[in-house]
Amino acid sequence: MRLYQFFLTLTAVSLVGCGSTPYRDDYARYTNQLSNSTISESEFQFSFVDATFVDMRGVYLPDDSVDSTPMMYQGGAGVVGLLAQVGTHSAIIQSQRTEKLAQEQEKANQKILPLIDVTKDIPLAELVGEYGTSLFQVAPEMTQTFRVKPIFFSNTDMNKLSLKSIVWLPNEDNTDVTYKNLIQVYGPHLDESQRNAILNGDRKQLAQLLSSMLKGTIYIIKNELSGKYTSAKSKQQTFLIENDAGVEAIRGTVIEEKCGYQIIKDIRSWYIAYPKPETTLQNFTTQC
């Protein structure tokens, strides 16, 4: 019995120590349970979820570590009671980690308030360009409508923007997803005059930049879902991508070069569009 209690306690400690990742709305684990893993390109339709206007946020390093929260477990509560105590402790830690991430995001947002102010009233529907015919602007009820949640990010200098989009398709009873993935598009580096023009309210230039990233996202989604990237064969490489936290190493393969961008499929099956060094501010379109 003592040995059993030892292993039970060890399991409890492991559950508390590991914990699950706190909720983040800019993260998605790749899932694809579509029939034949693809859809017909003509069937593609999408709707923005939880967002009508541009959602701009500051970049921060998502460190969710928290100090250990001591808790005395009552041994006389039995197995069920012990597991209940473990669950309570785990929930407390989870809440602390989620709260820390929320605080870090708020701090990052404070550093880019001028940019948030000029982007917050821009409707997403104005930025989709030629993909407007596939956009449902009301809450989708049909399960074949893909949901897209776009979140724009900026570094503290407000001269390097990016877009993360979670894309998913619920199953028929809405209890799970048939498809889910993350698409990330980086914008080219803005020079001082471009940055100042945007912060001073140059809506045309700002809309061009945001639209470029959003249309690039939809372009990638359509190609991925229609199977155009399944036959792409290239050697796996390591790519160095700059962000506020420094340089991030991404392992993946180049599946397409488009509009001055390399479109990379990483080892998690996420898609990342990163501009080549010589790329200047331009529109990501199907024609370029």
Brief descriptors of the model:
288 residues; alpha/beta; ten-stranded mixed beta sheet; 5 helices; 10 strands; 31% helix; globular
Description of the structure:
The protein is of the alpha/beta class and about 290 residues long. Helices cover about 30% and strands about 25% of the residues. The chain has five helices and ten strands; from the N terminus they run αβββααβββααββββ. It has helices spanning about 1-20, 80-110, 115-120, 190-200, 205-225; strands at about 30, 45-50, 55-60, 145-155, 160-170, 175-185, 235-245, 245-260, 260-265, 270-275. Strands 1, 2, 3, 4, 5, 6, 7, 8, 9 and 10 form a ten-stranded mixed sheet that branches. A hairpin with a 6-residue loop joins β4 (about 145-155) and β5 (about 160-170). α1 packs parallel to α2. It starts with a helix and ends in a 13-residue tail after the last strand.
Low-confidence stretches: 6-21
Oligomerization category of the chains in this entry: single chain
Q: What is the structural class? A: alpha/beta
- Main sheet, how many strands, which sense, barrel? 10 strands, mixed
Order of helices and strands: HEEEHHEEEHHEEEE
Number of strands: 10
The end-to-end distance, rounded to whole angstroms, is: 71 Å
